[in-house]
Write a structure and sequence with these properties.
8% of the residues lie in helices and 34% in strands. By secondary structure, it is mainly β. The strands form three sheets. It has a four-stranded antiparallel beta sheet with strand order 1-2-3-4. The protein has a four-stranded antiparallel beta sheet with strand order 5-6-7-8, with no helix packed on it. It has a four-stranded antiparallel beta sheet with strand order 9-10-11-12. Strand 3 and strand 4 form a beta hairpin. The N and C termini lie far apart (43 Å).
Length: 176
Amino acid sequence: MKAKLFDPTSKSLGVAILDYNNDGWPDIFVATTPSPTSSTATWQNGTFAEEALSAGVAFGEDGVARGAMGVDASDYDGSGRAHLLVGNFTNQMLSLYRNEGNGLFVDEAPRSALGRASLLTLSFGVFFFDYDLDGWPDIFCANGHIDEEIGRVQPRVKYAEPPLLFHNLGRAVSRT
């Protein structure tokens, strides 16, 4: 409570530690559902300030709060800045937030193969790792729906969903 991280209105399902504003202090990104995704920056006095809205990570591009699940941070493009990967609920695609370096993130997923390939999945676990050891962080997503009967309501969505692996090609990410 003293650090100002407690939110009784949402469920926190993922946490990433990064220095997104390059001030030398660790920042905390909390993936929450069903409320706007939380991004908090640390201050030297040991408390945190909510900065999700001003950072561009509180809502999806449609202005709706996402069902954020897993989260990871990495410099996937060699810019020297930590970017965010967020797994979301079905029909919300992954979020691949590119850190612009000025306290603002831009979601690259809607304009990429990553967004289209993940739209119908429910991604609980996401992480960056270099599966082919080429020096570029690739993306892995563990998926699966929470409702065994989801196919009856949404025929294109399945309960058992395959994992996704995206290969980072240096300038573009492709699905493997």
